[in-house]
């Protein structure tokens, strides 16, 4: 019986080709926009999230403003941070600007960053060639440096800079490595900067105060506890002045970004849902017209022994049919649109099984929701009234 | 009395229109024996359509007792009535009422679909009955490719395919020319000769004369035409 009803539903969809196509089109737009928006949302968000993860989900950043008496953290404070439980390493940053000279070329106002071995151990894809700063460089305050890609290109075009010397702020440094080229939106660009051991940089920059520290965790799950501990240590270091520093937990930032992306997805999905709702009204309209047109047919079917629920099933199947076809076409067109957009934004397309289920589920639900009223109307038609309407 | 396939006692149908009541059928008693060919003859507005609807289980009486094939009809619910219509009654309408998008074969199959019969048997039975009404070469024609007489034959085949206890025909020749109408009546006679009970509703005296028995309906009341009893 179900098979028969399915056949009849299919025949009726085919019979009113133009009308069915227009009705299906409404659903295609609804489902298509939901799928496109959600897929674009997911794809771009996953891009952003992975960008942030690259930045360091296992990292807690400390920015120090300092107090008039103490303008930054000192080495003993760094050691205290290192003692905190579950801390894998602490990477302080000193930064300033200096003039650099190499191969007879001079470059002014170059960002000089003092870093330690932890930074090089913990940061992925940092080096293009050579080696990073190690513990020995820190302890013996070696005059070694790593240079950014732009500097490498400008000052050592066509040659290998490693092992050569470069003058930074009037002092000669040996180049031990080059930094990978980075794009701008993954934080501060290192292309135009040089990195030296932070112990060495204290002399060069003429300050013992560290204003930026990254604390690496063994396990990001302990981030809240570690953040609390760091705060306690820093309050101690600044004599109870909380405003002297800010602690940024990457995990928290990541989750707040996730919140924003989820909200965005919901909003975009909501817009698509409105379109789908309108499409559903289209189905209901078509089905109601269809019931009216086929009143005589319904009457005849009843006279031939069709029970009300059979009639209901037939009309319900028809509307589910329409909306499912719309859902499937809508899914593919939505993915296609998302693919084009992702291509333009040069992000990779993320397609999850839940999106597929969402498209099919939504369209089937729309078919049932908006088909039930016309189907019930059809099933309740009195056979005499129906037969009389010839 | 047990050979009555159809028994009606005191069937009354009242339509309520606002405060006004219109009594369409008044205390109708009707008995039809198995194998009978009955014509219900009456002008329009006499209540014959209402009577047909009640006989066909499409409508229920306001009061009275109706037994069809030993089943108490007036107590049945909508779903049970659907089963009775499917199994016990074969409808033949004035306007044929074939589904235009289905072939002759598919139209005849339709009641068997609702009876829950498997496709293979359905096709077989529908083919058999269509060749019986002389349309074995028109199985896959659509109604609009058939003449009026052929369409009515398809409709008769559809009515017979479930082997109902009563063939219920409503002005079966009303939409046909005289010659074709005559042929259809001959087919009815043939079917009746094979033992099928037929109840035919008509306003046409000549057509009614083809039946074995005529009852007149006027103003909602039945009168037997004694000459034909």
Q: Nutshell version of this structure?
A:
Chain A has 390 residues and is of the alpha+beta class.
Secondary-structure topology with pairs:
The complex is a heterodimer of chains A (390) and B (229).
Chain A: H1 2-15, H2 17-56, E1 59-64, H3 75-82, E2 87-102, E3 105-115, H4 117-122, E4 127-130, H5 135-139, E5 144-147, H6 149-155, E6 165-168, E7 171-179, E8 193-197, H7 198-205, E9 212-217, H8 223-237, E10 245-249, H9 250-293, H10 295-303, H11 308-345, H12 353-380, H13 383-388
Parallel strand pairs in A: 3-8, 5-7
Antiparallel strand pairs in A: 1-9, 1-10, 2-3, 2-6, 2-9, 4-7, 5-8, 6-7
Chain B: E1 4-17, E2 20-33, E3 37-41, H1 48-55, E4 63-68, E5 71-72, H2 78-88, E6 89-92, H3 104-114, H4 119-132, H5 148-160, E7 166-170, H6 178-193, E8 197-202, H7 205-208, E9 213-218, E10 221-224
Parallel strand pairs in B: 3-8, 3-9, 6-7, 7-8
Antiparallel strand pairs in B: 1-2, 1-4, 4-5, 9-10
Helix pairs in contact in B: 3-4, 3-5, 4-5, 5-6
Task: Report Rg of chain B.
Answer: 17 Å
Biggest interface, residues from each chain: A-B, 21 and 25 residues
CATH architect. name of chain B: 3-Layer(aba) Sandwich
Strand content of chain A: 15-25%
Q: Which fold does the CATH topology of chain B refer to?
A: Rossmann fold
What would you call the structural class of chain B?
alpha/beta
- Biggest sheet strand line-up of chain B: 6-7-8-3-9-10
């Amino acid at each position: 019986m179900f098979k028969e009803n399915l056949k009849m539903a299919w025949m009726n969809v085919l019979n009113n080709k133009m009308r069915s196509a227009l009705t299906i089109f409404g659903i295609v737009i609804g489902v298509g926009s939901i799928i496109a928006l959600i897929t674009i949302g997911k794809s771009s968000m996953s891009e952003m999230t992975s960008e942030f993860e690259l930045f360091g989900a296992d990292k807690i950043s400390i920015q120090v403003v300092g107090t008039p008496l103490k303008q930054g953290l000192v080495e003993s404070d760094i050691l205290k941070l290192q003692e905190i439980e579950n801390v894998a390493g602490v990477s302080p940053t000193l930064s300033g600007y200096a003039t650099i000279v190499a191969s007879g070329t001079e470059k002014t106002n170059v960002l000089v960053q003092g870093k330690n071995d932890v930074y090089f151990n913990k940061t992925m894809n940092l080096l293009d060639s050579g080696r990073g700063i190690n513990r020995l460089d820190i302890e013996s305050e070696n005059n070694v440096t790593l240079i950014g890609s732009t500097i490498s290109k400008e000052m050592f075009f066509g040659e290998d800079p490693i092992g050569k010397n470069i003058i930074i702020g009037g002092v000669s440094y040996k180049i031990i490595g080059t930094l990978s080229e980075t794009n701008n939106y993954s934080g501060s660009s290192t292309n135009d900067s040089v990195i030296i051991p932070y112990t060495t940089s204290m002399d060069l920059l003429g300050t013992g105060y560290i204003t930026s520290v990254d604390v690496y965790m063994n396990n990001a799950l302990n981030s809240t506890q570690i953040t609390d501990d760091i705060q306690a240590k820093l309050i101690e270091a600044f004599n109870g002045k909380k405003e002297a520093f800010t602690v940024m937990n990457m995990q928290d930032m990541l989750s707040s970004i996730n919140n924003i992306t989820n909200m965005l997805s919901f909003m975009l999905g909501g817009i698509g849902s409105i379109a789908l709702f309108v499409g559903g009204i289209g189905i209901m309209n078509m089905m109601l017209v269809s019931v009216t047109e086929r009143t005589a047919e319904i009457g005849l079917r009843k006279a031939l022994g069709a029970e009300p629920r059979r009639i209901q099933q037939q009309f319900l199947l028809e509307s589910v049919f329409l909306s499912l076809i719309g859902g499937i076409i809508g899914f593919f067109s939505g993915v296609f649109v998302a693919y084009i957009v992702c291509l333009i934004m040069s992000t990779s397309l993320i397609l999850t099984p839940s999106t597929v289920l969402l498209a099919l589920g939504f369209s089937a639900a729309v078919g049932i929701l908006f088909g039930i009223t016309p189907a019930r109307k059809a099933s309740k038609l009195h056979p005499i009234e129906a037969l009389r309407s010839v | 009395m047990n050979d009555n396939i159809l028994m009606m006692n005191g069937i009354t149908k009242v339509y309520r229109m606002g405060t006004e009541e219109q009594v369409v059928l008044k205390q109708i008693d009707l008995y039809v024996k198995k194998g009978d060919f009955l014509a219900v003859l009456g002008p329009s507005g006499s209540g014959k359509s209402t009577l047909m609807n009640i006989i066909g289980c499409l409508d229920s009486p306001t009061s009275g007792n109706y037994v069809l094939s030993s089943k108490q009809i007036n107590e049945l619910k909508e779903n049970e009535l659907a089963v009775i219509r499917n199994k016990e009654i074969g409808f033949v309408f004035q306007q044929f009422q074939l589904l235009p998008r289905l072939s002759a074969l598919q139209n005849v199959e339709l009641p068997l679909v609702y009876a829950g019969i498997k496709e293979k048997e359905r096709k077989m039975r529908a083919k058999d009955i269509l060749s019986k009404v002389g349309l074995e070469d028109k199985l896959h024609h659509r109604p609009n490719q058939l003449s009026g007489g052929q369409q009515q034959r398809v409709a008769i085949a559809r009515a017979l395919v479930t082997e109902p206890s009563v063939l219920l025909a409503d002005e079966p020749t009303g939409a046909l020319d005289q010659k074709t109408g005559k042929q259809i009546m001959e087919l009815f006679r043939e079917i009746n000769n094979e033992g099928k009970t037929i109840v035919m509703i008509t306003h046409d005296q000549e057509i009614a004369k083809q039946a074995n028995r005529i009852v007149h309906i006027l103003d909602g009341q039945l009168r037997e035409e004694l000459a034909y009893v």
